[in-house]
Write a structure and sequence with these properties.
Keywords: Heme, Iron, Membrane, Metal-binding, Monooxygenase, Oxidoreductase, Transmembrane, Transmembrane helix. GO terms for molecular function: heme binding; iron ion binding; monooxygenase activity; oxidoreductase activity, acting on paired donors, with incorporation or reduction of molecular oxygen. This is Cytochrome P450. Belongs to the cytochrome P450 family. It is a single chain. This protein is an alpha+beta fold and 515 residues long. The protein has a domain of 188 residues. The protein is built from 19 helices and twelve strands. The strands form four sheets. The chain has a five-stranded mixed sheet with strand order 1-2-8-5-3, sandwiched between helices. It has a three-stranded antiparallel sheet with strand order 4-12-9. It has a two-stranded antiparallel ribbon with strand order 6-7. Strand 1 and strand 2 form a beta hairpin. The longest helix is centred in the N-terminal third of the chain and has 38 residues. The chain starts with a helix and ends with a strand. The relative contact order is 0.15. Bound molecules: protoporphyrin IX containing FE. The site of protoporphyrin IX containing FE has 25 residues, from helix 9, helix 13 and helix 19.
Length: 515
């Protein structure tokens, strides 16, 4: 009998402990944090038990079916909660994602302090395991020594000397794509193309070359499997949001798991194969270095001071690059084409520049690319108005002071890139107009603060693929301008939306006419 009582007591004690933890974490802690910020004059929507402001955020979202005129004033649509609460509470405010507090910061001085001056006090936020499995546990998710080691190795691929060697490959992929468009032309010399799908394939091809180099064909087959796996997994994720859903043996999950195993085992085989061929071939090849080569060599030359690079690490880096390189650059190309289709004046200015610089060459050379100033300004304006990544997140590792703001350890910070890019106080009254001319005197002079333009992030964790993306985009836009004039198709609906990346919800149908 006494044993029973003891059992009951232990169970009761456990339940009490859990209830106490829940009440502290979901009720008292948020109230304490809210008061902490209130005392500093930082306000925000009130915390609601368990959900925080998630319901309000969902309610503020415009219905996805709603599209609007060809306006670039897109923040109220794509970042509704930020637009709404910034108008009420000012540039710095507190918002609750469940019981997690996020401080939204759009003051350039605070952002500079956070990402440049005191960057060691902040860390990237863990990606949930389900997302990590899809996007790969590579560079963007690494921290500390392991991150620094991988970043140092992978940077070699993105040196401008190496990228320049990739230009002929990129030019060929672009030419093949444009030839296919030409072959679809009607008798009147016009064709309608939904460009976003084509730019995805183009960027996939470029990133596959960048990662696999001479093993392109094997790599292509693997990335095709990864693309299929992504499609199945995102589909399942969208259907039902239950944390454990990904573990249930549904038909789609079973297919997704098998595809994941296939991607992994094919990559392992390819890595082993490349390892062997690199052992026999000591010669320095003429062509560009690819990621597989660079990382395999680094894994075999590991010195004892650096964390060892295992085969699993190489697999994860390959998976990550696929996602990081494919969707971002294709978004930039899609939005730039839409913007040039809307603005025939800038389209013609850019075309004149391309013909002046490239003369009779049908593919710009590396020197030509460096001279395409107007095309560069247009790409910057496109990245300003439609940044593929709309926001950056960080977490304070230790108690930190930013300006007058005291941030307790664990506070998450949200930098709304898209909001800063559309801030009239930084960019002037024409903030929502397409005006590449603002970048004429360089990025640093385009706005009141150089921090106002940050499509590739800032500081140590800024985008490693920035130069690759810009070279690819300049080349693609120049070659398109050389062959066609273009305008929006009547079916185009201007509906920017965030699906991880900022994309046109109904695609980008464009009418191309042979010059
Ligand atoms: C228009 C094209 C692109 C845009 C706008 C873009 C944007 C960004 C941004 C904003 C970050 C920083 C995120 C943060 O601070 O949390 C980032 C990081 C990163 N990007 Fe890009 N990116 C682009 C193209 C690429 C390409 C082509 C690649 C590779 C092939 C790439 C690979 C990466 C990687 C690996 C990181 C993580 C770097 C680290 O944590 O050290 N990106 N990118």
């Amino acid at each position: 009998m006494e044993d029973y009582w003891l059992c009951y007591l232990i169970i009761f004690w456990f339940v009490l402990l859990i209830v106490q933890k829940v009440v502290i974490n979901l009720y008292f802690r948020p109230r304490r944090i809210q008061n902490h910020f209130l005392k500093q004059g930082i306000r925000g929507p009130k915390y609601n038990f368990l959900l925080g402001n998630l319901k309000e955020i969902a309610d503020l979202q415009l219905p996805s079916s709603q599209h609007f005129s060809l306006s670039h004033d897109i923040v109220p649509r794509v970042f509704s909660f930020y637009h709404h609460w910034k108008n009420i509470y000012g540039a710095t405010f507190v918002v609750w994602f469940g019981a997690t507090v996020r401080v939204s910061i759009s003051d350039p001085t605070l952002i500079r302090d956070m990402l440049l001056v005191k960057s060691d006090n902040f860390e990237k936020i863990e990606t949930p395991p389900s997302a990590k499995k899809l996007e790969g546990d590579g560079l963007p998710n690494l921290r500390g020594e392991k991150w620094a080691h991988h970043r140092k190795i992978l940077t070699q691929i993105f040196y401008s000397q190496n990228l320049k060697l990739m230009i002929p490959m990129m030019g060929k992929s672009m030419k093949d794509m444009l030839n296919k468009w030409s072959s679809k032309m009607c008798k009147d010399g016009k064709v309608e193309i939904e460009v976003s799908k084509w730019f995805l394939s183009l960027s996939e091809e470029v990133v596959t070359h960048t990662v696999f180099g001479s093993s392109y064909e094997d790599g292509k087959a693997i990335f095709e499997l990864q693309a299929q796996q992504l499609a199945y997994a995102t589909n399942a994720f969208h259907q039902l949001f239950i944390p454990a859903f990904r573990f249930l043996p549904t038909k789609k999950n079973i297919i997704s798991w098998k595809l994941d195993r296939d991607v992994r085992s094919s990559l392992m085989k390819l890595i082993e194969h490349r390892k062997k061929s690199l052992e026999f071939d000591e010669s320095e090849l003429e062509g560009p270095k690819d990621m597989l080569e660079v990382i395999i060599k680094a894994s075999s030359n590991n010195n004892s001071n650096s964390p060892a690079i295992k085969v699993d690490d190489i697999v994860e880096e390959c998976k990550t690059m696929f996602l990081a390189g494919k969707y971002t650059t294709s978004n930039l190309l899609t939005w730039t084409t839409i913007l040039l289709a809307m603005n025939p004046h800038w389209q013609q200015l850019a075309r004149d520049e391309v013909f002046n610089v490239c003369g009779a060459r049908d593919t710009p050379s590396k020197d030509d690319i460096a001279k395409l100033k107007i095309v560069g300004m247009i790409l910057n304006e496109s990245l300003r108005l439609y940044p593929p990544l709309a926001a950056i997140l960080r977490r304070a590792k230790i108690d930190t002071k930013l300006g007058n703001l005291n941030l307790p350890k664990g506070t998450e910070l949200l930098i709304p890139t898209i909001g800063i890019h559309h801030d009239a106080e930084l960019w002037g009254d024409d903030v929502n107009e397409f005006n590449p001319g603002r970048f004429e005197r360089g990025v640093a002079q385009a706005a009141k603060s150089p921090i106002a333009f940050m499509p590739f992030g800032l500081g140590a964790r800024h985008c490693i693929g920035q130069n690759l993306a810009i070279i690819q985009a300049k080349l693609a836009i120049a070659m398109m301008l050389m062959r066609f004039s273009f305008q929006l198709a009547p079916t185009y609906q201007h509906a920017p939306t965030i699906h991880i990346f900022l994309c046109p919800q109904y695609g980008a149908p464009i009418i191309f006419k042979k010059l």
